[in-house]
Amino acid sequence: xxxxxxxxxxxxxxVCLPHAGxxxxxxxxxxxxxxxxVEVLAVQYPGRQDRRHEPPVDSIRGLANRLVEVLRPxxxxxxxxxxxxxxxxxxxxMALRMPEAGLPAPVHLFASGRRAxxxxxxxxxxxVSDERLVSExxxxxxxxxxxxxxxxxxxxxxPAIRSDYRAVETYRHEPGRQLDCPVTVFTGDRDPRVSxxxxxxxxxxxxxxxxxxxxxxxxxxxxxQAAPMIAAMTEKLAGAALATGGNS
Length: 248
Fold this sequence. Notes:
Blueprint: E1 12-17, H1 28-34, E2 38-42, H2 60-70, E3 79-84, H3 86-100, E4 108-112, H4 130-140, H5 145-148, H6 151-169, E5 183-188, H7 196-200, E6 210-215, H8 226-244
Parallel strand pairs: 1-2, 1-3, 3-4, 4-5, 5-6
Helix pairs in contact: 2-3
């Protein structure tokens, strides 16, 4: 967990889960924007940045299991989960596991840029050549163009990126399992990886309320649409904290 902005009086904590190939630093602006009302905990997956020498984990459930254990020291106030793309599926699996592990259920799941857990496509990006993998990253955006043009940097980051794609492309949800927490879904209206109908299907995965927000943009729409997303998260988390008696 990475805390960029300590917020000792925060009424809730938001655990942020990066996309495939992403890192905790992606959420630095969000941490600044939500503090001090909400404290952001950004996850640093193994295999990148300061954890680049650790082997990456190529299983969504494997990551979710480990992250639920990491959450234990932070459950003294309401916890919400926010994941983008691959991170949204990890958040979903964490939310299923938290009550089973003796943790409070998340007060909210924010799923961004990812089709519902039960919606699959025949993707095999993790099995393509390095050149095609880099081409895919360029097409989706969200990656530093200079980094993708640097052979030495690519040699360092591609194993973790490929492992992430393997994790999300081989994932299959367990039918019959549902959340009971509220779910807010953010999607871009031009996202080549997620249709609006695939995003709307998140409602099938919770018995709680579900809210779909369609915003202008592609797969990394959140870079340009941070303001409405932050406003929605702030509103939802304020209500959740009041309902659970969180700090004010």
